[in-house]
Amino acid sequence: MKLSDEQLAVIQAPLGAMAVTACAGSGKTATAIRRLIYIRQLMKSSRGRVALLSFSNVAVDTFNKGFQQLAINLPDGVNLKRVEVDTLDGFFTSHVIRPHAHRTMGANQAAFLVSGSEPFLSGFSYWRDGSFPLPIAEFKVGIADGKTFFYSGTGDNHELLDQAKALELVGRLGRTGAYTHDLGRYWIYKTLSNQPAVLRALATRYPQILVDESQDLGMVHQEILELLIKEGVQVSLIGDANQGIYGFAGADGSFLRSYSTREGVSGFELTRNYRSLPPIIDLANALSGREDKPYREPQPGGLYFLGYKDAELERLFDRFRDCLDELGLQHEQAVILARGADRVAKLSGEVEPPGRGVMTAFTEAALLRDQHARFLDAFKLVSRGVVSLLEDAPSGLASKLLGAPQEEWMLRLRRVLWGFTRDADAGLPSSNLLGESEWHALLLQRIRSLLVHIQRDYGFASVANLGNKLSKRDLRNAPLNAASPVGKQGPEIRVETVHQVKGESIDAVLYVAKKAHIEALLGGTGDEEGRIGYVAVTRARNLFWLAVPNSCLKELRPKLVSAGFGELTNG
Ligand SMILES: Nc1ncnc2c1ncn2[C@@H]1O[C@H](COP(=O)(O)OP(=O)(O)OP(=O)(O)O)[C@@H](O)[C@H]1O
């Protein structure tokens, strides 16, 4: 790969804090990895480490793969052991929460993550006059002028909580050692603020931190980074403010936008889009007001719109598949996008997991594993299911298994449950099997032997009414993954929300939109709905199809044509 001058300028800049504003498809991944290695080279024999932090495990995997490839050819002198890639939450969990937060929380054991569904959390609900109690898992944390506050809801729909009441609940939960995802950030901030030695040690160990996708940094993450900056850490931000689509979660992109104007921070730009064909970049430029340049030469593909109605989605998908075949694009390299999870479920004709109670957990886990390769979600369900079959499991066991257990026996048990979840041949049976006869019989047999193993090695007996709990009464004698008789078949191309494909490059995108989404897309990146449209458009390498409801086709046609879309007529 021949790096551009802009990419090289970022990679080879002298040591120091930087703000890199980059367009979609500009090779942030390749640039960030090389910068990471270059920083470590500049640090010479210093013992300090460099961390590259991002938001998703997928991004971390991509960075790690790229890093491994480059690392092979590096001279021995580069100290690659002192280079780390992690998610922001993963990084702060291992360096702050797990080893140190319990002291600030007042807990007598290491902190552990709870998902929100644990029964014991019902004792930590926030009671409001004349309304339902708010579960503590719905508490969100903000920071203004260095003071933390608790709220619930999102965006304009948020509700500031009674701070004294909320703080009492958070503190009481903290004393048990438990924290929810959102409260984790609160405890990181509190731990670093209240234990200066921990902050100092972290800053000494990681004098250089790069944050990718930094438009998604929320208020609390920003304040955590500010603490490190004050302590001398050089923080570099890389991101694209036009792709900020987590405003509802408190990330408004302002940290990235203003960072380059700070004293001591150098600003850089990446303005060449390596991903998309020129017509797609023209639209992205028009939406964002940028003038990014294409790298690829024109070739068949581009931007098109067509009408659809919900009753005829199959026809829409057929046409899309035909077009992929004509262009020689693989169906696996294409995606169908929708705005929300409900819509995704409808478009993909998703199969409802059959069963009740613990059986639903196992059937859903098998479907998640086999239909979506969502192993972690499947593991969570299997863990909860299995723990609910144990007579005398310690309280919070399922949550501890999902978090980061420290006790050796729990780590072993977690490995056993992971093995059971992943292995369709010896563990959780395949969802291709007939539900009532084959799948259920195998599940029962394997769960029984798993429980025997757990009793022998860990001392937990299983519940008495196992047969009842694992009843097959809701299973049909059809493959578990077969649609119910009234259900639809799926489109055979993966269907995702726009948020799920953030960061990806995809050959062909079909965005099945509603009128409001199209208007927002055409309105540009000034607001979050517009940025969501922008993210959808800029995932596409060769082809972007916008499916427009027939009911508003006439009204939107002129705007779409003037934005550069070609129309695909019916027939
Ligand atoms: N110098 C280069 N020459 C050729 N291809 C490049 C170069 N730099 C990056 N690319 C390619 O550009 C594509 C897009 O890169 P990448 O996915 O890192 O974009 P990104 O900046 O993260 O985009 P987004 O923010 O939209 O997700 C990748 O296929 C990558 O291999």
From TrEMBL:
<keyword id="KW-0067">ATP-binding</keyword>
<dbReference type="InterPro" id="IPR027417">
    <property type="entry name" value="P-loop_NTPase"/>
</dbReference>
<feature type="binding site">
    <location>
        <begin position="22"/>
        <end position="29"/>
    </location>
    <ligand>
        <name>ATP</name>
    </ligand>
</feature>
<feature type="domain" description="UvrD-like helicase ATP-binding">
    <location>
        <begin position="1"/>
        <end position="277"/>
    </location>
</feature>
<dbReference type="InterPro" id="IPR000212">
    <property type="entry name" value="DNA_helicase_UvrD/REP"/>
</dbReference>
<dbReference type="GO" id="GO:0004386">
    <property type="term" value="F:helicase activity"/>
</dbReference>
<keyword id="KW-0547">Nucleotide-binding</keyword>
<dbReference type="InterPro" id="IPR014016">
    <property type="entry name" value="UvrD-like_ATP-bd"/>
</dbReference>
<dbReference type="Pfam" id="PF00580">
    <property type="entry name" value="UvrD-helicase"/>
</dbReference>
<keyword id="KW-0378">Hydrolase</keyword>
<keyword id="KW-0347">Helicase</keyword>
<protein>
    <submittedName>
        <fullName>ATP-dependent helicase</fullName>
    </submittedName>
</protein>
